[in-house]
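sry for the spam today, last one i promise. struct tokens for design, 475 residues
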């Protein structure tokens, strides 16, 4: 059997990181199995679906390097790939279900349905459909339609338990009575998700449906539709939910949840992809850091975890930092310079920028942190904290400050030089007998206002003499 998997987003918003993770899993599984990834746009909600969201979601998938094999703009033999272009197909299959008695026309008004729901509620029952149309003769229903009435089509839910084996969760049993006769085609001719999803998955020869656990209840309805339509049932793998720190399903109130936001903040696609993969899947060698390319050949469905995955921005930042460090300095520089929203470099020379990046890369996890270091270099006043004040209060520190204040004026080179810094250290040791921590910490705090930071002999040559003079005057 050839493997065909699909990612089926609704273009009603930007690509959610949960959706990106689902697509990643489908993509990796297709690659591993030599199969195909199909992109299907589920745009039957005409009011909320927007072309710009479809485009932005496709761009975000490409940003990760996930190229689909069939889908909009890549027509294969199973198109069209937008549900709004397949309405006749759904109508045909709904009509077949009507003819075979597995679906029925329902003429209930919204008010009637609301009354039924309220009654069920008052009697402490689940509000399952209990209108009078399930067994209404078909010829009479057709007459009503001829007379201008516009019914919905409902699926006749069989009164039996439904069971299936999920590749992640094992045997799943749904006792009968969980769902009532649900709508498959609205009165305006638009299909509902649980119906068109099955028709498409079946007609597009989808072999494996890999999606979030939140769709389990939909799978119950979908299994009934597969059976009624006589379609082969694909394999299902329901992956665990992404949750925030409060263990609730990840949503906007937990922070940035769209891929676009991370892209705009300057996260690396490889890092976000790597991190999303780890949320619910584990590497056979327990590796935390990898590129998608490296796991294409080892991706196995049996390494999915059943428990929900905590979305932790601190871990994402750590992964991003690891990927920064594995990059060539020149590539990293190009990446930083290409950032639109979070760029920070001015008109420094390429050499300066390269040195800045390679000096700080060990210490940063995000572009924002690079920016903070950049701003520090240009800061001419020192904003010192508690530990720095302590260093400033050491007996030897004023001597260091006075020494540097005099020495710095002996050159008028625009930038400081590392030789200068080495010479100062030597002189402070020999002539002023200051050494060890007093020398290193004292000099660092006097020059940078900070107890910690990158190698002074590399940091200072990135700074102008004038800025250091101003800093010295500010403490
Ligand atoms: N359009 C559905 C969603 O975005 C697809 C779910 C599925 O994979 O079946 O949730």
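last one done:
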């Amino acid at each position: 059997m050839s493997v065909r998997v699909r990612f089926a987003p609704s273009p009603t918003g930007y690509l959610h990181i949960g959706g990106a993770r689902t697509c990643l899993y489908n993509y990796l599984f297709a690659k591993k199995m030599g199969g195909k990834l199909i992109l299907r746009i589920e745009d039957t909600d005409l009011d909320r679906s927007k072309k710009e969201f479809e485009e932005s979601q496709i761009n975000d998938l490409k940003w990760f390097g996930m190229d689909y094999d069939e889908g909009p703009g890549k027509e294969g033999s199973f198109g069209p790939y937008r549900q709004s272009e397949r309405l006749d197909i759904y109508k045909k299959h709904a009509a077949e279900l009507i003819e075979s008695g597995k679906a029925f026309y329902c003429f209930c008004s919204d008010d009637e349905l609301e009354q039924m729901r309220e009654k069920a509620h008052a009697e402490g029952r689940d509000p399952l459909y209990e209108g009078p149309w399930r067994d209404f003769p078909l010829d009479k229903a057709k007459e009503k339609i001829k007379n201008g009435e516009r019914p919905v089509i409902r699926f006749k839910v069989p009164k039996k338990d439904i069971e299936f084996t999920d590749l992640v969760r094992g045997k799943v049993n749904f006792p009968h009575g969980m769902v009532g006769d649900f709508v498959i085609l609205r009165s305006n001719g638009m299909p509902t998700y649980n119906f068109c999803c099955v028709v498409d998955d079946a007609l597009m020869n989808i072999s494996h449906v890999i999606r979030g656990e939140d769709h389990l209840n939909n799978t119950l309805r979908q299994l009934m539709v597969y059976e009624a339509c006589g379609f082969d049932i694909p394999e299902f793998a329901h992956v665990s939910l992404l949750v925030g720190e409060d263990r609730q399903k990840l949503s906007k109130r937990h922070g940035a949840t769209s891929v676009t936001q991370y892209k705009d903040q300057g996260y690396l696609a490889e890092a976000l992809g790597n991190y999303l993969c780890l949320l619910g899947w584990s590497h056979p060698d327990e590796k935390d850091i990898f590129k998608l390319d490296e796991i294409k050949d080892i991706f196995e469905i049996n390494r999915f975890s059943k428990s929900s995955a905590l979305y932790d921005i601190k871990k994402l930042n750590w992964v991003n930092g690891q990927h920064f460090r594995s990059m060539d300095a020149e590539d990293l520089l190009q990446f930083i310079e290409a950032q639109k929203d979070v760029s920070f470099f001015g008109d420094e020379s390429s050499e300066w920028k390269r040195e800045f990046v390679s000096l700080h890369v060990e210490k940063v996890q995000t572009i924002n942190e690079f920016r903070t270091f950049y701003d520090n270099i240009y800061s001419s006043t020192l904003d010192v904290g508690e530990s720095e004040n302590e260093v400033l209060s050491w007996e030897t520190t004023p001597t260091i400050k006075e020494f540097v204040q005099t020495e710095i004026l002996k050159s008028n080179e625009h930038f400081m030089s590392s030789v200068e810094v080495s010479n100062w250290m030597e002189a402070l040791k020999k002539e002023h007998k200051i050494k060890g921590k007093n020398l290193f910490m004292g000099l660092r705090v006097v020059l940078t206002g900070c107890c910690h930071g990158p190698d002074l002999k590399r940091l200072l040559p990135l700074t102008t003499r004038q800025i250091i003079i101003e800093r010295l005057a500010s403490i």
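The chain has a mean pLDDT of 96. ok im logging off now
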